[in-house]
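Fig. S4 source data, part A: sequence.
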Amino acid sequence: ALLTVVACSGVKVLVGAIIPSSSRYIFFTVAVILIAYNFGFGPGLFTIVASTLVGLVVFERFSFSTPEQPAWQRAATFAIQALVICYICGVRIKTTLDRTTALEAERAARVELVSTSQELRRSEERYRGMIAAVPQIVFLADPNFQFEWINDRWAGFTGLQEAGASGSGWLEAVDPADRTALEGEIRRALREKQVLNTELRLRERSTGLYRWHLTRAVPVLDHGRSIAQWIGSFTDIHDRKLLMDTMQELNEELEHRVQRRTRELIAVNRELGGANAELEAFCYAVSHDLRTPLRAIDGFSQAL
């Protein structure tokens, strides 16, 4: 407001040098319009006061005066007219423009909200399609590892309703022998904010037997590095685990067979060593006993 008043005063001085009888307040009216329109009623009112003081103190005293109207009347007329203009520009027009801008912004925000909503809907459809295509049991849990949602494969495998799995109700399908170790692993994962990766047995509805599953849950952290959610799954590893156990048993049996066969070979080697020693002794005795007869035969053959 001050810079605008100073600028308009400079223009008034330049114009007054060319046209001495020019209006003292016409340029200040322009200043009031500019300030009120751009910055509101308060700065516009300040511009009116500053312009009136400059007009009375400077231009009424040092400019060319006309006798038709007193200085205070000209200043009062300017102040009243400028006040009306300031109200129109700073309140009515600005309010209308602000409302129009707000409506445009609201319309743009509504369009963006609709677009974002459609994108979120498409993303959710892709997410649900991906979850439906996954052969595992998938779940979502709160920061305390209380289940909030689980897919329909849970009900298909365990026979328990999805609503019954909320909170800690899913533990009803876990083998009681595995619950203590599982709860310890969950507490460790919560404390260390690390991935939960453990094996447990879930009861199958069709057979009533417990099958081994690999439970893996990943923590989702917020900006404060606190757990906001858990995303996890149950993967059936029963057949693979049985196969691994069978292979382990076969390996152990093979190891026992190798050790037993090794012991048998060692015993056979000992027996062969004894037989070789006896054979060497026998050969030595035979060669020693045949030496004298062969010497006699050799002498008779020489004489013959």
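Fig. S4 source data, part B ends here. Residues 238-303 form the longest helix (66 residues).
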